[in-house]
Design brief:
mainly alpha; membrane; transmembrane; globular; YhhN-like protein; TMEM86B-like; 10 helices; about 80% helix; disordered C terminus; about 230 residues; transmembrane helix
Length: about 230
């Protein structure tokens, strides 16, 4: 079995087959018990892939990834019944912790050009304002939790963006686009839950979420620090 996790092509095929099965289950079967069986393997596969392939020497860095994936797994299970207010609230909190742990893993001490971050931050702010203004009248008691969730997502994508020129290009692109897919999935899920239905929403949300965690973990595994950085991670 280990040879599958060591082989990028084989693992990618396996991962997207499992993701496709979960999407089909969501579209055609009841949530209980079927999605409680089909959804957890998505994160568990990435957990095993990371453990088999990581070359990270710092234990704290490994811990952040493991904690993040553990939170994603719990959040995935809780959000299956997203119409339940208690489970939805708990999932928002758990996903928030997952993003915080991931942000800690992506953080570094290398110098960066603050001016390069300004236009990017403006785009992120505009996106957040758009989503929040769209959902404002529908969020009600969830306004503060949703705002905090989007704020943590903004931190995550900024940490991903600031890895540019600090790590190799392949790792940077994998993680950066992975976080973008995550924010798209999160935005669509918020609109679906609090505002209105979207065309092909279940397929798009699950597909973009699956792609996001896949890209992020692959990017972290492939990470190589550039030699021209003086300060260590």
């Amino acid at each position: 079995m280990s040879h599958i996790f060591k082989n990028e092509k084989k693992f990618t095929i396996l991962f997207f087959v499992v993701l496709t099965i979960d999407i089909l289950v969501k579209l055609n079967l009841s949530s209980f018990p079927y999605r409680y069986i089909s959804k957890p393997p998505i994160t568990l596969l990435l957990f095993l892939y990371y453990c088999y392939n990581t070359t990270e020497k710092r234990k704290i860095k490994k811990s952040w990834v493991i904690l993040s994936l553990s939170c994603f797994l719990i959040g995935d299970i809780l959000i299956i019944e997203h119409t339940n207010i208690i489970l939805l609230s708990a999932s928002l909190a758990i996903f928030g912790f997952a993003k915080i742990f991931l942000s800690l893993r992506l953080s570094h001490r290398s110098d960066f050009d603050i001016m390069r971050l300004v236009p990017f931050s403006i785009v992120l702010f505009a996106y957040t304002v758009f989503i929040v203004s769209l959902l404002y009248n529908s969020l009600k008691n969830f306004f503060i939790p949703a705002l905090l969730s989007f704020f943590v997502s903004l931190l995550l994508i900024q940490f991903a963006f600031l890895r540019k020129d600090v790590v190799d290009r392949i790792s940077y692109l994998y993680v950066f686009f992975g976080v973008i897919f995550y924010m798209l999935s999160e935005g669509m899920m918020a609109i679906k839950t609090f505002k209105m239905d979207l065309p092909m929403q279940d397929i798009l949300i699950m597909l973009s979420y699956g792609i996001s965690v896949y890209l992020i973990i692959f990017g972290i595994v492939k990470e190589h620090r550039k030699n021209n950085n003086i300060n260590p991670f």
